[in-house]
Amino acid sequence: MSETLVLFLPGATAPWRWLRVKDGVVAARGEGLPVLAPDSAPPVVVTPADAVTLHWAELPDRSAAQAVTAARILAADASAAPLSDVHVAVGREASGGERPIGVVALAQMRGWLDLLAANGVEAGVLLPAPLLLPRPDSGFVAADLEGEGVVRGATTGFADEAGLTELVTGGVAPERLDGAQRDAAIVAAVAAPALDLRQGVFARRTRFTVDWALMRRLGWLGLGILGVSLAITIVQIVKYDVAAADLEQRADLAARAGLPQGETVNDADRQLDARLARLRGPGLGFSRTAATVFSAVRAVRGAEVTNLAFASDGTLRVGIAADGEGAATDLQQRLRAAGLTVDPGAALTASGGRITGTLTVKPQ
After folding, report:
1. Residue 133 and residue 143: Cα distance in Å, rounded?
2. Helix, strand, coil: what percent of the chain each, to 5?
3. pTM (2 decimals)?
């Protein structure tokens, strides 16, 4: 069930007047300020016809800002008041290509809104009185709107005053709308207002309200997303843990395969390292130490190895022979550069033109 309150602003001598539109008909009307229900829709407030100047013009449709700018230019040409002192609003009608333009003094707009606020009324729409009447295809229509006479033409709208009306209409008598015709026109105009003066700086401020039902749904949705993300993380952790355990088991099996058969396994990694140390020898092991020594000997011309002896502490005793002391010194320097410590022991001896002796080498 739809219901709209139409409130007529008071004039110099006219009181507040109102009517109530319910289910497409005027259901009630009266004088004074009606009691407004707290949850009722904001009323359509009708402004006096003599306080608003109406024009019609073809305006650009690209944006509201362009339409208002063009309307202000037209209003500046047609208005005697400075453009800075007037408020210009643009509307649209269902019929006709031209759009209605309302021009009203800024002080008048502020006065209306202050009056409404002082009486606890928030206007949903500020509608000039002539736009309650239908737009005629030709000629003029007139009606008594809650105590105010109003005349409407295709591109005019003004208060019905003796002398002025005949001048504007050129002596053509307007068609009078009374009773059911007038009420039907009001119902149609209120259902789709052709012009709302509450634009720009006077636009109605929308109040921010919290949709708690939506907030609860969003909260549950957020918890669901968090739960799914947590479940995915837990599954990934379990998968990684299972994969790591499998890799550890495989490594343990591989380590056990490298131990002697029949050996009791307590710590496969430690026991495998111990066996590897036994196989390769202490220190760097015999193979690596001997390979380093032979590489250094090959690099020194006239040097050769005469014997080797690998000790249990990882040291290698190397018997050498070289062509002169210079070659023996070069050999020792190369061994040290390869990461070995060199102990020549007893002094090297010369025999038959060659230097011989024993070097003790081990990792640094």
Report:
1. 8
2. 40, 25, 35
3. 0.56
